[in-house]
Amino acid sequence: MSNQEYWNAIAEKAKEIDNNALLRRIYLFILALQGGTR
């Protein structure tokens, strides 16, 4: 699985948990970290 596929899978999962504010906040934090390491 490529790195992009990995993050696409997480994005799909995030849609499932979109109504959970805490998990969504954690997800966005991880995305920010990942975006800063490219």
Primary descriptors:
38 residues; 2 helices
Describe this structure in words.
By secondary structure, the chain is an all-alpha fold. The chain has one domain (3-36). The protein has helices spanning 3-16, 21-36. It is flat and about 25 Å long.
Provide the domain count: 1
**Proportion of strand residues:** under 5%
Main sheet record:
none
Q: Give a count of the beta strands, DSSP E runs of length 2 or more.
A: 0
User: Based on the structure, what is the oligomeric state of the protein chains?
Assistant: single chain
Structural class, by secondary structure, is mainly alpha
Structure summarized in a few sentences:
The chain is mainly alpha-helical and 38 residues long. Helices cover 79% and strands 0% of the residues.
What layout of secondary structure does this protein have?
Blueprint (H helix, E strand, L loop, with lengths): L2 H14 L4 H16 L2
